[in-house]
Design goal:
The protein is mainly α. The chain is about 65% helix and about 5% strand. The protein is built from 16 helices and 6 strands. It has helices at about 5-20, 25-30, 55-65, 70-80, 85-105, 130-155, 160-185, 220-245, 245-260, 265-290, 295-315, 320-330, 340-355, 370-395, 410-430, 440-465; strands at about 1-5, 40, 110-115, 120-125, 210, 210-215.
Length: about 475
């Protein structure tokens, strides 16, 4: 095991900032997500795996809960009030058992794509136990433990300020390092953020596409940066629309620009999908006659951008040729490229592995896909897929009608966290090779579940307080 001095230094810095924000654990955990290529150590006994620094903050959060004197009473309380945690616990147990059992039970009966142990890259091989069974299962279990610990913290105490500050700090750090990376490359300085890239990943940070520099920020490649930008943009946009926060509005604009300049096909396709509910929301406001200034501003900016673009085309037809070439290569012709065909073949083989294992799956970490839903199906099988779908439904529902029993600020934070989790699912659906939904998903699941439990308690109290014989709600 080799400790990374840079990773340790970054962790200390995040802890200090979190302490200043009066939430070293929650704020620190969320802020650490901005460092997508910074590891704390390298585990040589585990195939050179290098856990990212957010695992350090996960350990702190879980340890803080485990060290409580009333830890068992607190756990019993949250499991009694939040039924989602039972599903999550079953998923963690099933995943751990399946990751050990299925690669051995179906060894040699199907072929999968795995990381090569002798050279960088993905190779096709017969199903067998690999180090990914341990590492990826560990990440999913850490996510489940984080969600459980956060439920304990959030159920009886109002810590939404820490959640809000953590998300906004994460978005600010991500955007800031994206700007630094882009400016440095345009100035000819190259990858000046390389000192913080201590993870043992393949670093694709000094790459051009169609004449444009690919922005990587603090991540290992442009695709990861684009996916994270999509998640951060979803949080900031929803929080801005619900609270009119100037900081969130500024971050939304900056993240949108970085996302467009990222040259990431994942970001472009994900943005096109997330624009649909935004457009429907604006259309609904327009038809109902309740359109507000922010929506008018969005429409005006789109119209101005369209007019400027058309004017430039009139004077110089070839001005946008490099951009058109970029969009052709990264989006429209992506599936026809060698990389696109290779990833499509990964997905085909993953679905074939699901059939070969009679729907049980090959075990988490046993294979590599290029889409999160396909990875869930092939690695976790039908049973694990159903449990993941149930958790996804909880996130998709959000607060629902229970939103009226919490204050507007809490509702805004929960809605924003929900949007970021759904954005991470959208991004993962086009690029993720693992069935693990990611730390953002588990954090949002905890925020939503704990807040719903508190809202149900408030609803029960409100109904008890009503005069005898008076209905809790108006009936038609």
């Amino acid at each position: 095991m080799q400790i990374s001095f840079i990773g340790l230094l970054v962790c200390v810095g995040i802890l200090l900032v979190g302490y200043y924000c009066r939430g070293p654990l929650i704020v620190g955990l969320l802020a650490s997500l901005a460092f997508g290529a910074t590891s704390l150590m390298t585990l040589s006994w585990l195939g050179g795996s290098s856990p990212l620094i957010y695992t350090f903050f996960v350990a702190l959060v879980v340890t803080a809960i485990g060290a409580r004197r009333r830890v068992w009473r607190d756990l019993g309380n949250v499991f009694g009030k939040i039924r989602t945690l039972w599903i999550l616990s079953c998923l963690m147990i099933y995943t751990a058992v399946g990751a050990w059992l299925f690669p051995r039970l179906f060894a040699g009966q199907t072929s999968v794509f795995v990381q090569s142990g002798t050279r960088r890259g993905i190779v096709e091989a017969s199903l067998a136990p690999v180090s990914g069974n341990i590492t990826q299962t560990g990440y999913l279990v850490l996510g489940g433990l984080t969600a459980t610990a956060l439920c304990v913290l959030l159920l009886h105490e109002d810590r939404m300020v820490g959640i809000r500050r953590g998300f906004l700090l994460w978005c600010s750090l991500h955007a800031g390092m994206g700007v630094i990376d882009l400016i440095a490359k345009l100035a000819g300085a190259g990858d000046i953020l390389w000192p913080i890239r201590t993870a043992s990943y393949a670093m694709l940070t000094d790459v051009r596409e169609g004449g444009f520099w690919r922005i990587t920020g603090a991540n290992s490649e442009a695709s990861s940066f684009g996916g994270s930008s999509l998640v951060c943009l979803a949080f900031c946009y929803v929080y801005w629309r619900k609270t009119k926060s100037q900081l969130a509005r500024g971050l939304s604009a900056l993240l949108l620009i970085l996302l467009i300049l990222s040259t990431s096909s994942t970001a472009y396709v994900g943005l096109a999908i997330l624009v649909i509910p935004v457009a429907l929301s604006i259309l609904r406001s327009f038809l109902s006659g309740r359109i507000d200034r922010d929506e008018i501003l969005i429409i005006a900016l789109i119209a101005i951008a369209a007019v400027i673009g058309l004017t430039i085309i009139v004077y110089d037809e070839g001005y946008f040729a490099p951009l058109v070439h970029l969009m052709d290569s990264m989006v429209f012709n992506k599936a026809a490229s060698a990389s696109g065909q290779e990833r499509a073949y990964w997905n085909i083989k993953s679905l074939q592995a699901l059939i070969d294992t009679s729907g049980l799956g090959v075990g988490l970490g046993s294979s590599r896909a290029s889409s999160w839903p396909i990875a869930v199906a092939s690695q976790l099988g039908v049973v694990g897929g159903v449990m993941i779908a149930m958790l996804l439904l909880v996130v998709f529902k959000g607060m629902g009608h229970l939103g009226q029993y919490v204050d507007p600020e809490t509702n805004a934070v929960v809605s924003s966290a929900r949007a970021s989790a759904l954005a991470s699912v959208v991004a993962g659906s086009f690029s993720s090779g693992s069935a693990d939904p990611g730390m953002v998903f588990f954090i949002a699941l905890a925020v939503i579940s704990a807040t719903r439990a508190r809202a149900r308690s408030e609803r029960y109290t409100a109904r008890r307080a009503l005069p005898l014989g008076r209905p809790a709600f108006k009936t038609r």
